[in-house]
Write a structure and sequence with these properties.
The protein is mostly beta strands. Helices cover about 5% and strands about 50% of the residues. It has a three-stranded antiparallel beta sheet with strand order 1-6-7, with no helix packed on it. A two-stranded antiparallel sheet has the order 2-3.
Amino acid sequence: MVNPAWSVEALAAIYFDGSCFIQTYEVIGSPPNVAVPTHFAKVVLASRPASSSTPDVHEISTGAFVLPNAIIPDEAPLESFVTPGI
């Protein structure tokens, strides 16, 4: 699963112009009406049989990551994008 996300800095770019609240962020398209997220949140769910004698019982593992919407070097360790579990 992949979800768009915005950084705290992008969300904090909200101001009141006297009549309404305005938020600024990058948009693309023609006309420009598609918001560009600053980050992506990714959730991974994996399962495998707990043992060969109990193939219907599965061990489940999860991982959650927040990645910037930018070029990430191939050498970047995936662990640097892990989010803490709840």
